[in-house]
Amino acid sequence: MEIMLGVRFLPSEYSTGPVHGGRIDSLGLDENGAPVIVEYKRATDAGVIHQGLFYLAWLMDHKAEF
Fold this sequence. Notes:
Elements: H1 2-5, E1 8-15, H2 17-20, E2 23-29, E3 35-38, H3 46-61
Antiparallel strand pairs: 1-2, 2-3
């Protein structure tokens, strides 16, 4: 996936900690050092969008880590 996406991946199942209480399937950094979240889904329901917004909120709370 690094070759295809140009993303340096960090550990899989990245924990968002006790406050957010989730796990990101794959977390990485792009060529500019910006975080990239990859979630693997089969579903197409609204829950997929909600999870993406949840991870966006997590990223906004953890800017200093990136």
